[in-house]
Amino acid sequence: MSRSEIHRSQSGNSRLKAIAWTAILAAFVYVCIRVVPLYVNDFQFRDTMQSTARFASVNRQSPEDIRKNLLKEAEKADMPIRLEDIKVSNRGGRVDIEANYSVTVDLHVYQWTLRFHPTASNSAL
């Protein structure tokens, strides 16, 4: 094998590696674009739940009012939460809130179902 043939062979291998790494990077960015907003929405919803739980006793909100307010917040963020997915209990001034929901992400080659279970309470008060 001559030097020019070896150089061409090595050049082809490095080009193939560059294409493969570019494809992997593009797939990673695509998945992040599809998934990260769901986690951001969940984080913001958890924060809303915690604020609601913290001030529920002070604001004298009933469990049904809390559920309806949280559902409105979820709808604003276009989250797939139904009223029956939100559980609120109020025992002696202690408010516990939990929600269970799932989101299926269509990645065109795979259906990925993410399950979220945010909880909040005012037990720290």
The helicity comes to 55-70%
Q: H/E series, N to C?
A: HHEEEEE
Q: How would you sum up the global shape? A: elongated
Number of strands: 5
Report strand %. 15-25%
The number of helices is: 2
Q: Spatial order of the strands in the main sheet?
A: 1-2-5
Kindly report how far apart the N and C termini lie: 78 Å
What's a quick, concise take on this entry?
With 125 residues, this protein is α+β, with helices and mostly antiparallel strands. It has helices at residues 3-59, 63-76; strands at 86-91, 94-99, 101-106, 111-116, 119-121.
Walkthrough of the structure:
Helices cover 57% and strands 22% of the residues. With 125 residues, it is of the alpha+beta class. It contains 2 helices and 5 strands. The chain has helices spanning 3-59, 63-76, and strands spanning 86-91, 94-99, 101-106, 111-116, 119-121. A hairpin with a 4-residue loop joins strand 3 (101-106) and strand 4 (111-116). The protein has a domain at 38-121. The chain starts with a helix and ends with a strand. The strands form 2 sheets. It has a 3-stranded antiparallel sheet with strand order 1-2-5, with helices on one face. Strands 3-4 form a two-stranded antiparallel ribbon.
